[in-house]
Amino acid sequence: MATLAALLKSRGYHVQGSDQQVYPPMSDFLVAEGIKTFSGYSADNITDDIDLVVVGNAISRGNPELESVLERKLRYCSLPEAIRDHFLWGARSIVLAGTHGKTTTTSLTGWLLTHGGLDPSMLVGGIALNFGRSDGTGPTQGSSYRVGAGRDFVIEGDEYDSAFFDRTAKFLKYLPDIAVINNIEFDHADIYADLDAVLVAFRRLVRLVPRNGLLLIGADSPHAKALVPTAVSPVETFGLDELATWRASAIEVRDGLTRFDVHREDKPFGRFESPLLGAHNVRNALAAIAVGTRVGLTPQTLAEGLRKFTGIKRRLETVGVAKGVTVLDDFAHHPTAVHETLSALRTGYPGRRLWAVFEPRSASSCRRVFQADFAKAFGAADEVVLAAVFRSSLPEAERLSAEELVDDLSRQGRHARHIPEIDDIVSTIVRERRDGDVVVLMSNGGFGGIHGKLLQALRE
Q1: Which runs of E-coded beta strand occur in 118-256?
Q2: Which of 8, 131, 150, 160 is most buried, by the most CB atoms less than 10 A from its CB?
Q3: Residue 26 lies in domain
Q4: Which long-range contacts (CB under 8 A, 24 or more apart) does 142-147 make?
């Protein structure tokens, strides 16, 4: 929503918005963009001069601003409808979707096209560090959008629902000319009943790609790969699978960089170097390389652009080093994402003690449906700390049990603890720290400001 606000402002609209709580990095982003933000909801914020109200999918009936809009019959729409109607009808729409890796792959793709001189527009669900605040000209504080003069619009395709009045996936509004589906797993347990319901949404996306378009499918994801026969458009696959159209091999990590060979239809395409760690990020890079090739970029241009990619806030972002302890921030909240994050860190920081500090916060991670999966996700960590389950209002039978998870991890030989309070987590790490420790803080929310609190406590 913050990114859409900035995009609309770039088109000359006066934009303001409300939220219950805005936290970094998006709070800083909104301030930098000069967008007025109301803290909390009030019918007084819906003034008579408003032409359009974009209703976010966190808003439900009973919200005072929504009730005012409905009572006064003001024009309203969902976020994906606003994006489509203002930006996508005249563009070549490149939609990056999948359970994991959407933000990284979208940022990578947007950057490769920018580096290649195609001057794309972009909307991504994070802060991509290669982009300037509004013009995309260089690594300043980063941005979640870009407004270009080219025909391409690169957009993160979220399978989450659109609004209280439209429970279909956002990405079904994005008019894909090129669509990427990295992988598919069960997620968003608050809106999808099971994996089959998730698959229905992705099948619908596949059916929207035109015959002159391209569908790119992650070959290493069985559920994504199963969609290939349902496509009407041309299909290419990518991954580590030997039969993938785009295949990565000879992966090595050295000096904080990941290097790998790329083959296209079993023919050598090039040697690439990425600053991102982990096999999952090799797959993300493959997808971006495949899109870049489709729109006309050369292997040399793509390799140079990938080397210059500087990352995304909250995706294995190093937030500081203090007293010999490296502190990283990561958005991981699904068991697979937690596993991939920790595996990447184990590869990138060999021989160092790895702390995994996890806040179960998202609608899915707070639920018992992932209890067994989380017990398998922390295998690469030396120390596991579980914070309080954020959605404590869930019925106990449906809620993730941190205590049970600690017991399961302990039986596997992991040193795991449940420490509900942020300050107690900080004091524990400070008390037990060793030189060379790596601490990754994982949450899809603000995590109570633990990042700054930990660094400050270490320095003191």
Answers
A1: 121-128, 143-146, 152-157, 161-163, 166-169, 178-181, 214-218, 235-239, 246-254
A2: 131
A3: 12-74
A4: 142/25, 142/312, 142/313, 143/6, 143/29, 144/2, 144/3, 144/6, 144/26, 144/29, 145/3, 145/6, 145/7, 145/10, 145/121, 146/110, 146/114, 146/120, 146/121, 146/122, 147/7, 147/10, 147/121
Whose CA is closest to 142, among 130, 150, 155? 130
Reported pTM: 0.84
Please check whether residue 7 lies inside any domain of the structure: no
pLDDT single digits (tens) 405-460 = 999 999 998 899 999 999 999 999 999 999 999 999 999 888 989 999 999 999 99
**All residues at 6 or more sequence positions from 3 whose CB lies less than 8 Å from its CB, including other chains:** 123, 124, 125, 144, 145
Q: For the chain, how many structural domains are there in total?
A: 3
Rounded to a whole number, what is the largest CA-CA distance in the chain? 63
Cα separation, 344 vs 349, whole angstroms: 8
In a domain, 312, yes or no: no
Please check whether residue 50 lies inside any domain of the structure.
yes
Contact indicator for 341, 104 with CB cutoff of 8 Å: no
Whether the Cβ atoms of residue 245 and residue 214 lie closer than 8 Å to each other = no
